[in-house]
Amino acid sequence: MTAPHDWTTTPISTDILRGALDLEQTGRGVLPHRLPAQARRQIPDGQLAMAESQPSGVRLAFRTRATAVELDVVATKRIYPGAPPRPDGVYELLVDGRPAARAGAPDGDTLTVDLATMSTQTRPGPVETLRFTGLPEGEKDVEIWLPHDETTQLVALRTDAPVRSPRPSGRPVWLHHGSSISHGSNATTPTGTWPALAASLGGAELINLGFGGSALLDPFTARAMRDTPADLISVKIGINLVNADLMRLRAFGPAVHGFLDTIRDGHPTAPLLVVSPIHCPIHETTPGPSAPDYSEMSEGRLRFMAMGDPAESAAGKLTLAVIRDELARIVAQRAAADPHLHYLDGLDLYGEGDHAELPLPDDLHPDPATHRRIAERFARLAFGPGGPFTRREG
User: 237, 218, 216: which is closest to 326 by C-alpha?
Assistant: First the structure.
């Protein structure tokens, strides 16, 4: 028979939470957000509202002698009628930076999405308790990474020894913004998204503002980045602008300038890296919009199709090739007066040859192996010798 634990309950606050920009008090606990309240009041659609509430890169972090940890959560399960059930989100526990355990919440609130009409219905569900036992004895740093793709309310944290705020890591804070690829689509664990892997390889503390379907140069996102303390900043721009068919070339350039201007208002000299899109055959020379192909959904396969006409790019419709050229031009122009601004071609992270070896399973998002490849290359090009994020003495 297992001996009962003498539990200590620790309030969940920003003192022990990393990677979130806001913490909302709810009727059952606290909900981490990756955009501040002012930005959330300006969100124009449900897609971004859902994406920013999914805690990609958000983790509880504390120092303790505890050997047992319990975390009460309310997870939001997404249901798409006609499609196979989605896997449960993964909670990863790290001890002194090393993976030690995983858990999942099999039940919770449900969000049912009708893919034909995009209407939604919600149903409240139960609180689930995640248990992590057998942690090493002695003082240690513990992190619990929340699911990157499952909205999670945090209800209670219990440990069998007191919890303290973590010690300063001494690592630079890396603030990154991007699309669903940065959010972590098709990654299977929260530490397996390419930004989380790159941060680990580069020795940085990640704040991930990758928003599925929503890297759209929104001014409120730029203001959130402007106001967030950070040492290193990157913005990955392109794929969502194409697959949403959001703007034409005439609007794109000024929008990029405005986004970068706003970031620079708060971070005038921080290394700022502009990253263009990775290789995506359906949109290299074909404009958006893109649309899901549901024909194989019942077998668990979803693919995406480009619905534009390549001839339309002559009239200013955006393709990935057009965006890469324009981003390179904009950065070169601005860098003449901004020596801390840099450009990284997304094809150096994942190019045509990589696609031949590791194709995008749904024609849009990378699989876990590709997330790792992108992360390793980003870490080498950005954090490695001569890279824009390389630490410089003095």
Answer: 237
Residue closest to 182 by CA, chosen among 37, 78, 51, 306 = 51
pLDDT of residue 312: 95
Number of Cβ atoms within 10 Å of the Cβ of 320 = 26
Q: What is residue 325's three-state secondary structure?
A: helix
Looking at residue 362, the DSSP 8-state letter turns out to be: T
pLDDT digits (tens, 9 = 90+) for 367-393: 999 999 999 999 999 999 999 999 765
Instruction: Write b or e for each residue in 78-114: b if 16 or more Cβ atoms lie within 10 A of its Cβ, otherwise e.
Output: bebeebeeeebbbbbbbeeeeebbebebeebbebebe
CA 18 – CA 249 distance, rounded (Å): 37
239-279: pLDDT as tens digits: 999 999 999 999 999 999 999 999 999 999 999 999 999 99
139-155 as b/e, with b when 16 or more CB fall inside 10 Å?
Answer: ebebbbbbbbbbbbbbb
Contacts of residue 291, Cβ cutoff 8 Å, sequence gap at least 6: 304, 305, 307
* Token representation of residue 79: 């249901």
Residue at 19: amino acid letter: G
CB 93 within 8 A of CB 157: no
Q: Are 207 and 173 in contact (CB under 8 A)?
A: yes
pLDDT at 211: 98
CA end-to-end span of the chain: 58
Q: Cβ contacts of residue 28 below 8 Å, gap of 6+?
A: 74, 127, 153, 155
Gap between the Cα atoms of 344 and 23, Å rounded: 33
Enter the tokens of residue 276.
């263009």
Which among 75, 70, 101 has a CA at the least distance from the CA of 88? 75
CB count, 10 Å around CB of 6? Answer: 8
Q: Which percentage of the chain shows pLDDT scores above 70?
A: 96
Smallest CA-to-CA distance from 93 within 68, 75, 117 is with 68
